[in-house]
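Tokens for chain A. Residues wanted.
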């Protein structure tokens, strides 16, 4: 099982980025997914969004609600995180994670597999 994030980069405040998470060795369709991030200088990870494997429910942290959208393309076995109206505080390394437990969608520590991360930097 492997996850690989891409799509990070630099953006100005108010800008947009779309992060992608590609899976190999399993199918996202049967797994819950989370995106989490680690800000510079922080030791912990902040959960930002998740996608349930049952019913397709989506979840968002209050800090990103209305600006980030998680989605999944089962035909490509990809998960995306569309980021709009970016703020400097969105600067972080972003990770996708997946797992068989439904709670992985909201509690990233319950996920089984993690990617290597992709860096997002928001500055003017």
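Reply:
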């Amino acid at each position: 099982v492997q996850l690989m994030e891409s799509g990070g980069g630099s953006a100005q405040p108010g800008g947009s980025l779309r992060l992608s998470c590609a899976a190999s060795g399993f199918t996202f369709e049967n797994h819950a997914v989370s995106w989490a991030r680690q800000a510079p200088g922080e030791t912990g990870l902040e959960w930002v969004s998740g996608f349930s494997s049952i019913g397709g429910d989506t979840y968002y942290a209050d800090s990103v609600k209305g600006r980030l959208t998680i989605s999944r393309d089962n035909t490509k076995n990809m998960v995306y995180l569309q980021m709009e109206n970016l703020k400097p505080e969105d600067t972080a390394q972003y990770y996708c994670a997946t797992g068989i437990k439904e709670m992985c969608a909201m509690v990233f520590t319950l996920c089984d597999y993690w990617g290597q991360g992709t860096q997002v930097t928001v500055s003017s």
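The CA atoms of residues 27 and 39 lie 29 Å apart. The mean pLDDT is 95.
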